[in-house]
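thread from #wetlab-drylab

HS: before we spend reagent money on co-crystallization trials with adenosine-5'-diphosphate, can we at least see a predicted complex? here's what I'd submit
DV: go for it
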Amino acid sequence: MIREKLKNSKRIVIKIGTSSLIYPNGNINLSSIDALAFVLADLSNQGKEILLVTSGAIGVGMNQLQLKTRPSTIPEQQAVASLGQATLMNIYSQRLASYGKLAGQVLLTRDVIEYPESRKNVTNTLEQLLQMKIIPIINENDTVSVDELDHLTKFGDNDQLSAIVAQLTHADLLVMLSDIDGFYSDNPNTNPEATLHHHISEITPEITQQAGGKGSQFGTGGMASKLKAAKRILDHDLAMVLANGKQPKIIFDIIEGAPIGTLFMKNN
Ligand code: ADP
């Protein structure tokens, strides 16, 4: 069975979205962050190399400032992200410390990855962190890039960033945690007949057509963005599992090869 191959995953990138970190009422989901920190720490103790790509900076900042709606101007969004990023990082560091682990913050922009010299600096830092058993916690650097139209510095969203990090670090597996159980034949929130894809080996036009938009106010790019990330993973012969981030402990089962979520992996 193809899922058996996941058991050998040594280097794993985990991507978590805002909807898994913030409750719909805007408050921070501490139990989810704590459960995630436990999983990261335990996998690290097992000898695996773990990198986390996390969203949530603006959501956390909005909560701190008690903002009900996302600020409309880019400088305001950047300021809120700056505040929230520091707090989010602090929460991760604290929770990981309670499980005996250290965290390093890495903030990236697209241009940094595109220039060979700065890309080398990024990969060197990530490799060194892993060697030192420090868990890299990676996010887009919103101070430099927030504008959706800014293609020079902007990754697009953290779905793309996580696939790029997996590619740069030659990770064995990307676990993408969303607010849905995987990729369905249609948006299950609007079509109850939709069925879950257990394995996708190629992003065909038919598959692309099945992707709808984002699901929540915190969602980023919806399924189209996740498929774009999955295509990058398949193009580089890597593996990705898209699964529900409600219970981060499912990551243990995913790595054991359990049929959870949607596996994106070539057939060979
Ligand atoms: P996040 O960024 O938090 O992971 P998104 O909102 O970007 O979440 O994407 C997940 C949402 O995509 C789901 O909640 C669902 O409403 C929507 N969606 C659209 N098409 C599909 C599909 N074919 N399969 C699964 N979910 C889909």
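DV: Residues 17, 19, 178-180, 183-184, 186-189, 210-212, 214-216, 218-223 surround adenosine-5'-diphosphate (CB under 6 Å).
HS: ok that's useful, forwarding to the group
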